[in-house]
Design brief:
By secondary structure, this protein is α/β, with parallel strands linked by helices. It folds into 2 domains: 2-145 and 309-340, Medium-chain alcohol dehydrogenases, catalytic domain (Quinone Oxidoreductase, Chain A, domain 1); 148-287, Medium-chain alcohol dehydrogenases, catalytic domain (Quinone Oxidoreductase, Chain A, domain 1, Alpha-Beta Complex), CATH 3.90.180.10. The protein has helices at residues 41-49, 95-98, 139-143, 146-159, 176-187, 199-207, 222-229, 247-253, 276-280, 293-304, 321-328; strands at residues 2-6, 15-19, 29-39, 57-58, 62-70, 82-85, 88-89, 109-110, 122-126, 130-132, 167-170, 191-196, 212-215, 235-240, 254-262, 284-287, 312-317, 336-340. The relative contact order is 0.16. The structure holds zinc ion. Residues 90-91, 94, 96-97, 105-107 line the site of zinc ion (ZN). Residues 90-91, 94, 96-97, 105-107 line the site of zinc ion.
Amino acid sequence: MKAVYINEAGGPEVMIYGDRPNPEPEPGEVLIRVRSSAINFADLGVRSRGATGGFPRILGLDMAGEVVQAGSDSLGLQPGDRVLVDNRVKCGTCENCLQSIDQYCSNQKRLGADIDGGHAEYCVVPAINVYRFSDDMSFEEAAALPIAGHTAWHCVMTRGQLQPWEDILIQAAGSGVGSTGIQIAKHIGARVITTAGSDWKLERAKGLGADEVINYNDTPNFSERIMELTNGRGVDMVFDVVGAAVWEQNLRSLKPGGRLVITGTTSGNRTDMDLSILQGRPLTLMGSGGRPRRTFGEMMKVVNAGGLRGVVGRTFPLEGAAEAHRTMASRDFFGKLVLSH
Ligand SMILES: [Zn+2]
């Protein structure tokens, strides 16, 4: 079969589009004809730092496709089922898995990093990682969903506990987690204020349901605009993937007692912080951390009820994976970059 794989760590030029053996499913696994796979910043990390499970390694953390072969112990999955895949393969038997905190599984592996992933015509995955999705979502939209959608769900719903009557500031509307975070917050009825660096992205954000939008290039001190939009109160919650460049403005945007969840630091990791702000306006500052299987199931309930879908920014052929990796750096797209197979 055709696949995109690496034999060494490095830049996009180490990605090989070539032939790999067809994978064979073991008991409890299903064989998927992959129809689309998405690019995450984490894919670029696997490529540049190397695969922990050794080489050659087929890349691709996110994928969607059709089941072509499912054994009797494959949880009722049938050939022809349209499915997307939770990328984290957990052991189910370690102490953390047995305590239902599988996000901390001691033996977890990532498809597309520690074991072969979705940039291929076929992929073998554990049946328990496979979720059906409805016919009205394309394979490309489905492939764009698992990591970005699950991260946003975990941060907004599980960590942040967003409520329908609350105001949330979602940074970087055009990112995978930003574009899915907007949909999740709107689905539960919260009021969404979001940011982006260009007006065309803000228009797309409105199309996803954002109530208010701020261009952070035109309005670098965006907390002042947040205060205007909230009658001087501040937002209940901030969901951030940007990090250092917006940290101080994020904290200034929060109401007393507000909470912040951060899942990325695309603008940098280090910043000065005035600690007195925690005393004056007791804030709760949270990291994202690992995501349990349970909340992937929660997210899929909303996906299949029509409340959340992947956002496709640009599509490439499978053999264009290296070009897609280069395009990631440009940020000149909205949502996810996906490969059509
Ligand atoms: Zn485990």
